[in-house]
Amino acid sequence: MRIVLVGPPGAGKGTQAAFLAKNLDIPHISTGDLFRANISQGTELGLKAKAFMDAGDLVPDEVTIGMAKDRMEQDDAVNGFLLDGFPRNVAQAEALDVVLKAEDMQLDAVLDLEVPEDEVVKRIAGRRICRNDSSHVFHVSYNAPKSEGVCDVCGGELYQRDDDSEETVRRRLEVYHTQTEPIIDYYRAQNLVVTISALGKVDEVTARAMDALKK
Questions:
Q1: Where is the segment annotated NMP (predicted)?
Q2: Within 10 A of 102 (CB to CB), how many other CB atoms are there?
Q3: Is 31 annotated as a binding residue?
């Protein structure tokens, strides 16, 4: 099964991608992982991406598309894959269609995780990270520490990352609405979009997604 996963920041795409990929026995291919793997391995595309990133520029679509193409052609993806964070815009979606057609492949579904904007802001802006260990993550509403501002695990100070401020989150949402959301209409015209609510517990959302994909 070949799936594209879309949804706004804070929708839980990374978490759901990992569970869905495991349940479907297909590789989870994320843009972040592609960049890290290519850069660490020193591939031609990785070196190109690093040059743009070091200069503070966006990595061009053709580089991202090239990385995705190489990854989709690996042996573990022969029976399908789940794309997370790619395509990010209509141009990338069109390029992906060209790549898939050339390989005699096609997408089976585009899973759209739907979350109200206010919930996205609440989820992200409420996160608090431990200064001593960034793997210690809390949330003011969903996973509050026993003592405000203090890590339950090590006693370190909890803080809000700049990227998690409400102002930054709303800017990220604007970018999503402008650049990424249009791919939903693009794929809807191909009758590929399956929309589910991403509200609720992680396992509930996973079950909802699996049921929708089976249909």
A1: 30-59
A2: 9
A3: yes
Residue 88 annotated to the active site: yes
Note the pLDDT tens digit of each residue in 122-177: 999 999 999 999 999 999 999 999 999 999 999 999 999 999 999 999 999 999 99
145 is in an annotated binding site: no
Quote the CA–CA distance of 17 and 211 in Å, as a whole number.
15
161 annotated binding-site participant:
yes
Catalytic residue among 2, 170, 172, 208: 172
Domain extents for the chain? 2-214
Pick the CATH number of 2-214 from 3.40.50.1100, 3.30.70.360, 3.40.50.300, 3.30.565.10: 3.40.50.300
| 57 has pLDDT over 90 | no
pLDDT digits (tens, 9 = 90+) for 12-39: 999 999 999 999 999 999 988 999 999 9
Active site residue 2: no
Catalytic status, residue 122: no
What is the helix, strand, coil percentage profile of the chain, to 5?
A: 50, 15, 35
Is residue 48 part of the annotated active site? The answer reads no
10 carries a ligand binding annotation: yes
13 is catalytic: yes
Say which of 22, 101, 131, 161 is annotated catalytic: 161
* Model pTM score: 0.88
CA angle 73, 76, 82 (to 5 degrees): 80
